[in-house]
Specification:
Order of helices and strands: HEEEEEEEE
CATH superfamily of one domain: 4-oxalocrotonate tautomerase-like
Largest sheet: 5 strands, antiparallel
Oligomer: single chain
Shape: elongated
Number of helices: 1
Length: 177
């Protein structure tokens, strides 16, 4: 992780002790260059039955710093649906993730609870269905990571559900070095 560069503003206004303008703006540029990069993804997932820990989203832990997830879960056979916002952050060692889920709204009955973990080098969003049926999950995720995109991130059309680009042989188009 790059270190933030602090601008010396001196002790008093116009005391001549602070950084010259060119140096100060160079520090500003460097600080902005070190902000997190972001990719936005939309995906669909289905869970079946009420077994806990069903994976509905997965991304490499080495590219994950923090993320926001918006999940709309619905039961296609009823009017039951819920919308949840999940905010998550990985620890510095990259082996555990903490999250907060809030803002759930319901039509009909509630459908699911969520959990997150890191397993086999991946951050996973898990679903614990509260009903024994197939549930459809629409997931919009914004994952922030530091540095240049790493190889293997899917490329997709902005704003289109399930638009991960692929070839006619069904090879996903991904970022490369």
């Amino acid at each position: 992780m790059a270190t933030q560069q602090i601008i010396n503003i001196g002790t008093l206004p116009n005391d001549g002790e602070g950084d010259p303008l060119r140096v100060a703006f160079g520090k500003i540029n460097n600080n902005f260059a070190n902000l997190f990069a972001t990719f936005v993804n939309t995906s669909n997932a289905y869970t079946n039955g009420n077994t806990a820990g069903q994976v509905i989203f997965e991304t490499p832990a080495n590219t994950f710093t923090q993320g926001q997830f918006y999940v709309r879960s619905s039961d296609p056979g009823t009017n039951d649906s819920q919308a949840s916002q999940i905010y998550a952050q990985i620890n510095p060692d990259g082996d555990a993730v903490k999250f907060t889920c809030y803002g759930s709204t319901f039509f009909g009955g509630s459908l699911t609870k969520f959990d997150m973990d890191v397993l086999d080098g991946n951050v996973r969003l898990l679903c614990d269905p509260l009903v024994d049926t197939a549930i459809f999950h629409f997931i919009s995720s914004q994952v922030m990571y530091q540095g240049a995109p790493v190889p293997g991130l899917n490329i997709q059309l902005d704003g289109y559900v399930d638009s991960v680009m692929s070839t006619e042989d069904d090879f996903d188009i991904e970022t490369e070095q």
